[in-house]
Protein backbone atom coordinates (compact mmCIF):
# COMPACT_ATOMS: atom_id res chain seq x y z
CA UNK A 1 0.00 0.00 0.00
CA UNK A 2 1.09 3.59 -0.66
CA UNK A 3 1.79 5.62 2.51
CA UNK A 4 3.64 8.82 3.23
CA UNK A 5 6.57 8.98 5.64
CA UNK A 6 4.47 10.15 8.58
CA UNK A 7 2.02 7.30 8.10
CA UNK A 8 4.90 4.84 7.86
CA UNK A 9 6.32 6.32 11.08
CA UNK A 10 3.13 5.57 13.00
CA UNK A 11 2.62 2.15 11.43
CA UNK A 12 6.11 0.98 12.36
CA UNK A 13 5.73 2.29 15.93
CA UNK A 14 2.55 0.24 16.27
CA UNK A 15 4.23 -2.71 14.59
CA UNK A 16 6.96 -2.55 17.26
CA UNK A 17 4.41 -2.52 20.07
CA UNK A 18 4.90 1.13 21.04
CA UNK A 19 1.92 2.46 22.99
CA UNK A 20 3.49 5.56 24.57
CA UNK A 21 5.79 8.21 23.15
CA UNK A 22 7.23 11.25 24.93
CA UNK A 23 8.07 14.43 23.09
CA UNK A 24 7.67 18.07 22.13
CA UNK A 25 6.47 19.36 18.73
CA UNK A 26 8.20 21.75 16.32
CA UNK A 27 8.28 22.73 12.68
CA UNK A 28 10.40 19.86 11.40
CA UNK A 29 8.12 17.22 12.93
CA UNK A 30 4.71 18.76 12.24
CA UNK A 31 3.87 16.07 9.71
CA UNK A 32 4.65 13.40 12.30
CA UNK A 33 2.56 15.15 14.95
CA UNK A 34 -0.35 15.50 12.57
CA UNK A 35 -0.30 11.75 12.02
CA UNK A 36 0.03 11.07 15.76
CA UNK A 37 -3.07 13.24 16.25
CA UNK A 38 -4.98 11.05 13.79
CA UNK A 39 -3.79 7.92 15.60
CA UNK A 40 -4.17 9.04 19.20
CA UNK A 41 -6.27 5.95 19.87
CA UNK A 42 -3.28 3.77 18.99
CA UNK A 43 -0.34 5.70 20.45
CA UNK A 44 -0.48 7.87 23.57
CA UNK A 45 1.73 10.95 23.25
CA UNK A 46 2.96 12.58 26.45
CA UNK A 47 3.84 16.27 26.10
CA UNK A 48 6.59 17.31 28.50
CA UNK A 49 7.78 20.79 29.44
CA UNK A 50 11.19 20.35 27.84
CA UNK A 51 12.82 17.86 25.49
CA UNK A 52 15.30 16.83 28.17
CA UNK A 53 12.38 15.92 30.40
CA UNK A 54 10.94 13.86 27.53
CA UNK A 55 14.20 11.96 27.09
CA UNK A 56 14.38 11.18 30.82
CA UNK A 57 10.73 10.11 30.75
CA UNK A 58 11.43 7.67 27.92
CA UNK A 59 14.40 6.43 29.95
CA UNK A 60 12.28 5.99 33.10
CA UNK A 61 9.64 4.15 31.07
CA UNK A 62 12.31 1.73 29.82
CA UNK A 63 13.91 1.17 33.23
CA UNK A 64 10.57 0.51 34.89
CA UNK A 65 9.45 -2.05 32.31
CA UNK A 66 12.43 -3.34 30.33
CA UNK A 67 10.65 -2.22 27.16
CA UNK A 68 12.12 0.32 24.73
CA UNK A 69 11.40 3.94 25.62
CA UNK A 70 10.58 6.28 22.72
CA UNK A 71 11.10 10.05 22.49
CA UNK A 72 10.41 12.51 19.65
CA UNK A 73 11.84 16.01 19.21
CA UNK A 74 12.08 18.59 16.48
CA UNK A 75 15.27 19.71 14.74
CA UNK A 76 18.04 21.98 16.02
CA UNK A 77 17.55 22.92 19.69
CA UNK A 78 14.85 20.29 20.09
CA UNK A 79 17.30 17.61 19.05
CA UNK A 80 20.24 18.97 21.05
CA UNK A 81 18.03 19.18 24.16
CA UNK A 82 17.85 15.37 24.02
CA UNK A 83 21.60 14.92 24.27
CA UNK A 84 21.87 14.71 28.07
CA UNK A 85 19.02 12.21 28.22
CA UNK A 86 20.51 10.07 25.48
CA UNK A 87 23.91 10.09 27.19
CA UNK A 88 22.26 9.13 30.49
CA UNK A 89 20.62 6.13 28.84
CA UNK A 90 23.85 5.18 27.06
CA UNK A 91 25.94 5.12 30.24
CA UNK A 92 23.38 2.93 32.02
CA UNK A 93 22.60 0.63 29.04
CA UNK A 94 18.94 1.61 28.78
CA UNK A 95 17.01 0.66 25.60
CA UNK A 96 15.66 3.84 24.03
CA UNK A 97 14.93 5.08 20.51
CA UNK A 98 15.12 8.84 19.95
CA UNK A 99 13.49 10.28 16.83
CA UNK A 100 14.43 13.77 15.69
CA UNK A 101 13.14 15.85 12.84
CA UNK A 102 15.47 17.80 10.60
CA UNK A 103 15.30 20.35 7.82
CA UNK A 104 14.39 19.05 4.33
CA UNK A 105 17.22 17.11 2.68
CA UNK A 106 18.10 19.90 0.18
CA UNK A 107 18.80 22.17 3.19
CA UNK A 108 21.06 19.78 5.09
CA UNK A 109 24.54 21.16 5.63
CA UNK A 110 23.54 24.71 4.64
CA UNK A 111 23.01 26.18 8.11
CA UNK A 112 19.27 26.17 7.60
CA UNK A 113 16.96 27.49 10.31
CA UNK A 114 16.96 25.11 13.30
CA UNK A 115 19.41 22.74 11.67
CA UNK A 116 21.82 20.67 13.73
CA UNK A 117 23.97 17.71 12.72
CA UNK A 118 22.46 15.56 15.43
CA UNK A 119 23.80 12.34 13.93
CA UNK A 120 27.35 13.57 14.43
CA UNK A 121 26.61 15.12 17.83
CA UNK A 122 25.21 11.87 19.23
CA UNK A 123 27.63 9.43 17.63
CA UNK A 124 29.66 8.88 20.84
CA UNK A 125 26.55 8.43 23.04
CA UNK A 126 24.42 6.01 21.01
CA UNK A 127 24.75 2.36 20.08
CA UNK A 128 24.01 3.47 16.54
CA UNK A 129 22.33 6.37 14.77
CA UNK A 130 20.80 7.02 11.37
CA UNK A 131 19.78 9.85 9.07
CA UNK A 132 16.97 8.75 6.76
CA UNK A 133 17.41 10.42 3.36
CA UNK A 134 14.79 8.47 1.38
CA UNK A 135 11.28 7.57 2.44
CA UNK A 136 11.85 4.06 1.06
CA UNK A 137 14.46 3.56 3.81
CA UNK A 138 12.34 4.81 6.71
CA UNK A 139 10.49 1.65 7.75
CA UNK A 140 13.48 -0.68 7.79
CA UNK A 141 15.65 1.95 9.50
CA UNK A 142 13.10 2.30 12.30
CA UNK A 143 12.90 -1.47 12.64
CA UNK A 144 16.68 -1.68 12.86
CA UNK A 145 16.70 1.01 15.56
CA UNK A 146 14.34 -0.97 17.80
CA UNK A 147 16.29 -4.18 17.20
CA UNK A 148 19.64 -2.57 18.02
CA UNK A 149 18.32 -0.85 21.16
CA UNK A 150 17.31 -4.21 22.68
CA UNK A 151 20.00 -6.52 21.27
CA UNK A 152 23.06 -7.55 23.24
CA UNK A 153 24.08 -4.80 25.62
CA UNK A 154 21.07 -2.52 25.50
CA UNK A 155 21.27 1.19 24.77
CA UNK A 156 19.89 4.21 22.91
CA UNK A 157 19.59 4.58 19.13
CA UNK A 158 18.82 7.83 17.28
CA UNK A 159 16.91 8.18 13.99
CA UNK A 160 17.01 11.61 12.32
CA UNK A 161 14.22 12.20 9.77
CA UNK A 162 14.29 15.24 7.43
CA UNK A 163 10.91 16.89 6.98
CA UNK A 164 10.55 16.09 3.28
CA UNK A 165 10.95 12.37 4.08
CA UNK A 166 7.90 12.57 6.35
CA UNK A 167 5.83 13.90 3.42
CA UNK A 168 7.12 11.70 0.59
CA UNK A 169 5.15 8.64 -0.48
CA UNK A 170 6.27 5.07 -1.15
CA UNK A 171 5.05 1.50 -1.01
CA UNK A 172 4.82 0.15 2.55
CA UNK A 173 4.74 -3.51 3.50
CA UNK A 174 3.91 -4.39 7.13
CA UNK A 175 6.23 -6.79 8.90
CA UNK A 176 6.25 -8.70 12.14
CA UNK A 177 8.82 -7.38 14.65
CA UNK A 178 12.17 -9.08 14.33
CA UNK A 179 13.20 -11.41 17.10
CA UNK A 180 15.70 -9.72 19.37
CA UNK A 181 19.18 -11.18 19.06
CA UNK A 182 19.77 -12.63 22.48
CA UNK A 183 23.32 -13.75 23.18
CA UNK A 184 22.69 -17.38 24.13
CA UNK A 185 26.15 -18.76 23.39
CA UNK A 186 29.11 -18.90 25.73
CA UNK A 187 32.27 -20.92 26.16
CA UNK A 188 31.20 -24.01 28.09
CA UNK A 189 34.77 -24.90 29.04
CA UNK A 190 35.27 -21.47 30.58
CA UNK A 191 32.05 -21.87 32.55
CA UNK A 192 33.29 -25.23 33.86
CA UNK A 193 36.56 -23.60 34.92
CA UNK A 194 34.62 -20.86 36.68
CA UNK A 195 32.50 -23.43 38.53
CA UNK A 196 35.63 -25.30 39.63
CA UNK A 197 37.15 -22.09 40.96
CA UNK A 198 33.97 -21.20 42.84
CA UNK A 199 33.64 -24.71 44.29
CA UNK A 200 37.20 -24.55 45.62
CA UNK A 201 36.81 -21.07 47.15
CA UNK A 202 36.91 -20.52 50.88
CA UNK A 203 35.89 -16.86 50.81
CA UNK A 204 33.82 -16.36 47.63
CA UNK A 205 32.02 -13.10 46.88
CA UNK A 206 29.59 -12.10 44.15
CA UNK A 207 29.83 -8.52 42.91
CA UNK A 208 27.03 -7.65 40.48
CA UNK A 209 25.86 -4.63 38.53
CA UNK A 210 23.04 -3.31 36.41
CA UNK A 211 23.72 -5.84 33.67
CA UNK A 212 22.12 -8.49 35.85
CA UNK A 213 18.84 -6.57 35.85
CA UNK A 214 19.09 -5.89 32.11
CA UNK A 215 19.61 -9.59 31.41
CA UNK A 216 16.64 -10.57 33.58
CA UNK A 217 19.02 -12.83 35.46
CA UNK A 218 17.93 -11.94 38.99
CA UNK A 219 16.65 -15.43 39.82
CA UNK A 220 19.73 -17.33 38.57
CA UNK A 221 21.85 -14.96 40.66
CA UNK A 222 19.73 -15.58 43.75
CA UNK A 223 19.90 -19.31 43.13
CA UNK A 224 23.69 -19.17 42.90
CA UNK A 225 24.28 -17.22 46.11
CA UNK A 226 21.93 -19.40 48.14
CA UNK A 227 23.07 -22.74 46.73
CA UNK A 228 26.74 -22.08 47.53
CA UNK A 229 26.25 -19.62 50.42
CA UNK A 230 28.06 -16.79 48.67
CA UNK A 231 27.58 -13.27 50.05
CA UNK A 232 26.75 -10.69 47.38
CA UNK A 233 27.49 -7.02 47.00
CA UNK A 234 26.21 -4.73 44.27
CA UNK A 235 26.63 -1.42 42.48
CA UNK A 236 24.21 1.49 42.57
CA UNK A 237 22.63 0.31 39.31
CA UNK A 238 21.75 -3.09 40.77
CA UNK A 239 20.02 -2.02 43.99
CA UNK A 240 16.95 -4.19 44.53
CA UNK A 241 18.07 -7.17 42.45
CA UNK A 242 18.74 -9.14 45.65
CA UNK A 243 16.05 -8.09 48.13
CA UNK A 244 16.73 -6.09 51.25
CA UNK A 245 16.86 -8.50 54.18
CA UNK A 246 18.23 -11.41 52.18
CA UNK A 247 20.98 -12.89 54.40
CA UNK A 248 23.35 -13.04 51.42
CA UNK A 249 22.87 -9.33 50.63
CA UNK A 250 25.72 -7.50 52.35
CA UNK A 251 25.03 -4.08 50.86
CA UNK A 252 26.33 -1.71 48.23
CA UNK A 253 30.02 -1.59 47.36
CA UNK A 254 32.27 1.34 46.50
CA UNK A 255 32.79 4.91 47.52
CA UNK A 256 29.37 5.20 49.13
CA UNK A 257 28.95 1.54 49.93
CA UNK A 258 29.08 -0.02 53.36
CA UNK A 259 32.10 -1.13 55.35
CA UNK A 260 31.22 -4.82 55.10
CA UNK A 261 31.01 -4.96 51.32
CA UNK A 262 34.26 -3.06 50.79
CA UNK A 263 36.03 -5.17 53.38
CA UNK A 264 34.70 -8.34 51.75
CA UNK A 265 36.10 -7.26 48.38
CA UNK A 266 39.49 -6.71 49.99
CA UNK A 267 39.52 -10.10 51.77
CA UNK A 268 37.71 -12.52 49.43
CA UNK A 269 39.67 -15.23 47.64
CA UNK A 270 37.31 -15.47 44.63
CA UNK A 271 35.36 -12.55 43.21
CA UNK A 272 32.57 -13.31 40.72
CA UNK A 273 31.77 -10.09 38.83
CA UNK A 274 28.42 -10.25 37.01
CA UNK A 275 27.14 -7.64 34.59
CA UNK A 276 29.35 -4.90 35.96
CA UNK A 277 32.20 -2.85 34.58
CA UNK A 278 34.36 -2.08 37.67
CA UNK A 279 33.58 1.64 37.46
CA UNK A 280 35.76 4.22 39.17
CA UNK A 281 33.08 4.65 41.87
CA UNK A 282 33.65 1.02 42.84
CA UNK A 283 37.23 0.17 41.85
CA UNK A 284 38.75 3.42 43.03
CA UNK A 285 42.23 1.98 42.68
CA UNK A 286 42.04 -0.66 39.90
CA UNK A 287 45.52 -1.98 40.67
CA UNK A 288 44.58 -2.97 44.22
CA UNK A 289 40.91 -3.83 43.79
CA UNK A 290 40.26 -7.36 45.13
CA UNK A 291 44.01 -7.86 45.11
CA UNK A 292 43.78 -11.11 47.12
CA UNK A 293 41.19 -12.71 44.85
CA UNK A 294 40.93 -14.74 41.69
CA UNK A 295 38.57 -12.59 39.63
CA UNK A 296 35.96 -14.08 37.29
CA UNK A 297 34.15 -11.54 35.09
CA UNK A 298 30.99 -12.36 33.11
CA UNK A 299 29.57 -9.71 30.80
CA UNK A 300 27.54 -9.55 27.59
CA UNK A 301 29.85 -6.87 26.20
CA UNK A 302 33.31 -8.33 25.40
CA UNK A 303 34.81 -4.83 25.40
CA UNK A 304 34.16 -4.58 29.15
CA UNK A 305 36.08 -7.74 30.00
CA UNK A 306 39.27 -6.73 31.77
CA UNK A 307 38.87 -3.11 30.64
CA UNK A 308 39.19 -1.45 34.03
CA UNK A 309 40.52 -4.24 36.25
CA UNK A 310 42.71 -7.17 35.26
CA UNK A 311 40.74 -10.40 35.63
CA UNK A 312 41.78 -14.04 35.75
CA UNK A 313 38.87 -15.53 33.81
CA UNK A 314 36.71 -13.50 31.39
CA UNK A 315 33.50 -15.00 30.03
CA UNK A 316 31.58 -13.22 27.27
CA UNK A 317 27.88 -13.92 27.38
CA UNK A 318 24.45 -13.06 28.71
CA UNK A 319 24.61 -13.40 32.48
CA UNK A 320 21.26 -15.20 32.56
CA UNK A 321 22.38 -17.96 30.19
CA UNK A 322 25.87 -18.24 31.67
CA UNK A 323 24.59 -18.56 35.24
CA UNK A 324 21.90 -21.01 34.17
CA UNK A 325 24.61 -23.14 32.54
CA UNK A 326 26.87 -22.82 35.57
CA UNK A 327 24.34 -23.60 38.33
CA UNK A 328 24.26 -27.40 37.81
CA UNK A 329 28.05 -27.42 38.18
CA UNK A 330 28.02 -25.48 41.46
CA UNK A 331 28.22 -27.56 44.64
CA UNK A 332 25.86 -26.94 47.53
CA UNK A 333 28.16 -25.59 50.15
CA UNK A 334 28.47 -23.63 53.39
CA UNK A 335 31.23 -21.18 54.34
CA UNK A 336 30.80 -20.78 58.11
CA UNK A 337 34.15 -19.12 58.78
CA UNK A 338 33.66 -16.64 55.93
CA UNK A 339 30.10 -15.81 57.00
CA UNK A 340 31.29 -15.33 60.57
CA UNK A 341 33.78 -12.73 59.32
CA UNK A 342 31.00 -11.06 57.31
CA UNK A 343 28.76 -10.85 60.37
CA UNK A 344 31.57 -9.37 62.47
CA UNK A 345 32.13 -6.67 59.85
CA UNK A 346 28.40 -5.98 59.63
CA UNK A 347 28.51 -4.99 63.29
CA UNK A 348 30.92 -2.23 62.25
CA UNK A 349 28.74 -0.87 59.42
CA UNK A 350 27.67 2.74 59.80
CA UNK A 351 24.17 3.07 61.21
CA UNK A 352 22.82 6.59 61.66
CA UNK A 353 21.48 7.56 65.05
CA UNK A 354 18.16 9.36 65.08
CA UNK A 355 17.97 12.81 66.60
CA UNK A 356 14.47 13.81 67.75
CA UNK A 357 15.33 17.50 67.48
CA UNK A 358 15.77 17.48 63.69
CA UNK A 359 14.66 15.71 60.53
CA UNK A 360 17.22 13.21 59.25
CA UNK A 361 17.43 11.49 55.83
CA UNK A 362 17.29 7.93 57.14
CA UNK A 363 14.16 8.78 59.15
CA UNK A 364 12.44 10.22 56.09
CA UNK A 365 13.33 7.29 53.83
CA UNK A 366 12.41 4.74 56.50
CA UNK A 367 9.01 6.35 56.94
CA UNK A 368 8.40 6.38 53.17
CA UNK A 369 9.18 2.66 52.99
CA UNK A 370 6.93 1.92 55.97
CA UNK A 371 3.95 3.77 54.52
CA UNK A 372 4.40 2.67 50.88
CA UNK A 373 4.91 -1.03 51.40
CA UNK A 374 7.06 -3.38 49.32
CA UNK A 375 5.63 -2.65 45.88
CA UNK A 376 6.61 1.00 45.52
CA UNK A 377 8.95 2.23 42.80
CA UNK A 378 11.58 4.75 43.88
CA UNK A 379 13.21 7.27 41.55
CA UNK A 380 16.05 9.64 42.44
CA UNK A 381 17.88 12.64 41.13
CA UNK A 382 21.64 12.79 41.74
CA UNK A 383 23.50 13.91 44.85
CA UNK A 384 23.49 13.13 48.55
CA UNK A 385 19.82 12.19 48.53
CA UNK A 386 20.58 9.58 45.84
CA UNK A 387 23.11 7.85 48.09
CA UNK A 388 20.87 8.08 51.14
CA UNK A 389 18.13 6.47 49.10
CA UNK A 390 20.44 3.68 47.89
CA UNK A 391 21.61 3.04 51.45
CA UNK A 392 18.32 3.26 53.35
CA UNK A 393 15.50 2.18 51.00
CA UNK A 394 14.29 -1.34 51.74
CA UNK A 395 14.37 -2.55 48.13
CA UNK A 396 12.22 -5.53 47.26
CA UNK A 397 11.69 -5.18 43.49
CA UNK A 398 14.36 -5.69 40.85
CA UNK A 399 13.05 -2.70 38.86
CA UNK A 400 11.98 -0.75 41.92
CA UNK A 401 14.95 1.64 42.06
CA UNK A 402 15.50 4.03 39.15
CA UNK A 403 18.50 6.34 39.17
CA UNK A 404 21.17 7.83 36.92
CA UNK A 405 24.36 5.96 37.73
CA UNK A 406 27.01 6.31 35.04
CA UNK A 407 26.41 9.88 33.92
CA UNK A 408 25.11 11.10 37.29
CA UNK A 409 22.54 13.44 35.74
CA UNK A 410 21.13 16.05 38.09
CA UNK A 411 17.57 16.77 36.97
CA UNK A 412 16.99 13.19 35.84
CA UNK A 413 14.45 12.30 38.48
CA UNK A 414 11.20 14.09 37.67
CA UNK A 415 11.18 13.10 34.00
CA UNK A 416 12.09 9.51 34.89
CA UNK A 417 9.34 9.38 37.52
CA UNK A 418 6.83 10.59 34.92
CA UNK A 419 7.96 7.88 32.52
CA UNK A 420 7.76 5.19 35.19
CA UNK A 421 4.30 6.32 36.31
CA UNK A 422 3.04 6.39 32.72
CA UNK A 423 4.43 2.92 32.10
CA UNK A 424 3.12 1.30 35.26
CA UNK A 425 -0.23 3.06 35.62
CA UNK A 426 -1.67 5.44 38.18
CA UNK A 427 -2.36 2.64 40.68
CA UNK A 428 1.40 2.01 41.03
CA UNK A 429 3.01 4.10 43.77
CA UNK A 430 5.99 6.10 42.46
CA UNK A 431 8.07 8.18 44.88
CA UNK A 432 10.80 10.53 43.73
CA UNK A 433 13.64 11.58 46.05
CA UNK A 434 15.52 14.75 45.16
CA UNK A 435 17.64 17.50 46.65
CA UNK A 436 17.02 21.22 46.30
CA UNK A 437 19.99 21.50 43.93
CA UNK A 438 18.92 18.71 41.57
CA UNK A 439 15.26 19.65 41.73
CA UNK A 440 15.91 23.19 40.54
CA UNK A 441 17.29 21.80 37.29
CA UNK A 442 14.10 20.24 35.89
CA UNK A 443 11.28 21.04 38.31
CA UNK A 444 9.45 22.53 35.31
CA UNK A 445 8.25 19.00 34.61
CA UNK A 446 5.82 19.50 37.49
CA UNK A 447 3.45 20.95 34.90
CA UNK A 448 3.59 17.61 33.05
CA UNK A 449 2.74 15.65 36.18
CA UNK A 450 -0.16 18.03 36.86
CA UNK A 451 -1.48 17.95 33.27
CA UNK A 452 -1.64 14.14 33.29
CA UNK A 453 -2.73 13.90 36.96
CA UNK A 454 0.14 11.61 37.87
CA UNK A 455 0.19 10.81 41.62
CA UNK A 456 3.97 11.10 41.95
CA UNK A 457 5.10 12.01 45.47
CA UNK A 458 8.29 14.09 45.39
CA UNK A 459 10.35 14.21 48.58
CA UNK A 460 12.74 17.19 48.52
CA UNK A 461 15.72 17.08 50.87
CA UNK A 462 16.33 20.80 51.26
CA UNK A 463 19.59 21.70 52.98
CA UNK A 464 19.96 24.95 50.99
CA UNK A 465 23.36 23.88 49.64
CA UNK A 466 24.76 21.67 46.88
CA UNK A 467 25.28 18.91 49.41
CA UNK A 468 27.47 16.32 47.69
CA UNK A 469 29.91 18.81 46.23
CA UNK A 470 29.98 20.67 49.54
CA UNK A 471 30.81 17.42 51.33
CA UNK A 472 33.81 16.95 49.04
CA UNK A 473 34.86 20.54 49.74
CA UNK A 474 34.60 19.82 53.46
CA UNK A 475 36.75 16.70 53.19
CA UNK A 476 39.33 17.63 50.56
CA UNK A 477 39.31 21.43 50.16
CA UNK A 478 39.60 22.63 53.76
CA UNK A 479 35.99 23.87 53.79
CA UNK A 480 36.45 26.34 50.96
CA UNK A 481 32.82 26.32 49.86
CA UNK A 482 33.18 27.69 46.36
CA UNK A 483 29.73 28.16 44.77
CA UNK A 484 28.00 25.42 46.78
CA UNK A 485 25.79 27.80 48.76
CA UNK A 486 23.49 29.26 46.10
CA UNK A 487 21.57 31.51 48.55
CA UNK A 488 18.26 30.62 46.93
CA UNK A 489 14.98 31.62 48.51
CA UNK A 490 12.70 29.27 46.64
CA UNK A 491 9.49 28.59 48.56
CA UNK A 492 8.63 25.09 47.37
CA UNK A 493 5.17 25.13 48.94
CA UNK A 494 4.19 28.35 47.18
CA UNK A 495 5.78 27.12 43.96
CA UNK A 496 3.82 23.88 44.19
CA UNK A 497 0.62 25.88 44.49
CA UNK A 498 1.63 27.89 41.43
CA UNK A 499 2.01 24.69 39.42
CA UNK A 500 -1.37 23.47 40.61
CA UNK A 501 -0.25 20.73 42.98
CA UNK A 502 -0.19 20.30 46.74
CA UNK A 503 2.96 21.09 48.69
CA UNK A 504 4.02 20.42 52.28
CA UNK A 505 6.92 21.61 54.44
CA UNK A 506 8.30 19.49 57.27
CA UNK A 507 10.91 20.16 59.95
CA UNK A 508 10.44 17.07 62.13
CA UNK A 509 9.43 13.45 61.80
CA UNK A 510 5.81 13.76 63.05
CA UNK A 511 5.20 16.51 60.48
CA UNK A 512 6.63 14.32 57.73
CA UNK A 513 4.61 11.29 58.81
CA UNK A 514 1.41 13.31 58.59
CA UNK A 515 2.35 14.99 55.31
CA UNK A 516 3.29 11.74 53.58
CA UNK A 517 0.12 10.01 54.77
CA UNK A 518 -1.92 12.88 53.30
CA UNK A 519 0.09 12.83 50.05
CA UNK A 520 -0.77 9.15 49.61
CA UNK A 521 -4.45 10.12 49.49
CA UNK A 522 -4.06 12.70 46.71
CA UNK A 523 -5.03 11.88 43.13
CA UNK A 524 -2.40 14.15 41.58
CA UNK A 525 1.28 14.99 42.20
CA UNK A 526 2.55 16.30 45.51
CA UNK A 527 5.79 17.77 46.87
CA UNK A 528 7.05 17.35 50.41
CA UNK A 529 9.90 19.69 51.36
CA UNK A 530 12.06 18.29 54.17
CA UNK A 531 14.28 20.82 55.90
CA UNK A 532 17.52 19.06 56.80
CA UNK A 533 20.87 20.11 58.20
CA UNK A 534 23.40 21.27 55.59
CA UNK A 535 26.10 19.25 57.38
CA UNK A 536 24.33 15.91 56.95
CA UNK A 537 26.83 13.62 55.23
CA UNK A 538 26.77 10.53 53.09
CA UNK A 539 28.78 7.92 54.97
CA UNK A 540 31.05 6.12 54.42
CA UNK A 541 33.09 7.76 51.72
CA UNK A 542 36.34 6.46 50.23
CA UNK A 543 38.75 9.00 48.71
CA UNK A 544 39.63 8.48 45.04
CA UNK A 545 42.31 5.86 44.56
CA UNK A 546 41.99 4.65 48.13
CA UNK A 547 41.30 1.23 49.56
CA UNK A 548 39.43 -0.17 52.53
CA UNK A 549 41.74 1.51 55.01
CA UNK A 550 40.76 4.91 53.62
CA UNK A 551 37.05 4.66 54.42
CA UNK A 552 35.92 7.78 56.24
CA UNK A 553 33.57 6.69 58.98
CA UNK A 554 33.13 10.03 60.73
From TrEMBL:
The keyword Magnesium applies. It is an enzyme of class 2 (transferase). Residues 191-323 form the Thiamine pyrophosphate enzyme central domain. The keyword Ribosomal protein does not apply. Gene3D superfamilies: 3.40.50.970, TPP-binding domain. InterPro entries: Acetolactate_synth_lsu (IPR012846), AHAS_TPP (IPR039368), DHS-like_NAD/FAD-binding_dom (IPR029035), THDP-binding (IPR029061), Thiamin_PyroP_enz_cen_dom (IPR012000), Thiamin_PyroP_enz_TPP-bd_dom (IPR012001), TPP_enz (IPR045229), TPP_enzyme_TPP-bd (IPR011766). One of its GO terms (molecular function) is acetolactate synthase activity. Its cofactor is thiamine diphosphate; Mg(2+). Transmembrane segments: none annotated. Its EC number is 2.2.1.6. Keywords: Amino-acid biosynthesis, Branched-chain amino acid biosynthesis, Magnesium, Metal-binding, Thiamine pyrophosphate, Transferase. Residues 381-530 form the Thiamine pyrophosphate enzyme TPP-binding domain. It catalyses: 2 pyruvate + H(+) = (2S)-2-acetolactate + CO2. It comes from the Bacteria. Pathway: Amino-acid biosynthesis; L-valine biosynthesis; L-valine from pyruvate: step 1/4; Amino-acid biosynthesis; L-isoleucine biosynthesis; L-isoleucine from 2-oxobutanoate: step 1/4. Pfam families: TPP_enzyme_C (PF02775), TPP_enzyme_M (PF00205), TPP_enzyme_N (PF02776). SUPFAM superfamilies: DHS-like NAD/FAD-binding domain (SSF52467), Thiamin diphosphate-binding fold (THDP-binding) (SSF52518). Binds 1 thiamine pyrophosphate per subunit. Residues 4-115 form the Thiamine pyrophosphate enzyme N-terminal TPP-binding domain. Belongs to the TPP enzyme family. This is Acetolactate synthase. It comes from Faecalibacterium hominis (ex Afrizal et al. 2022).
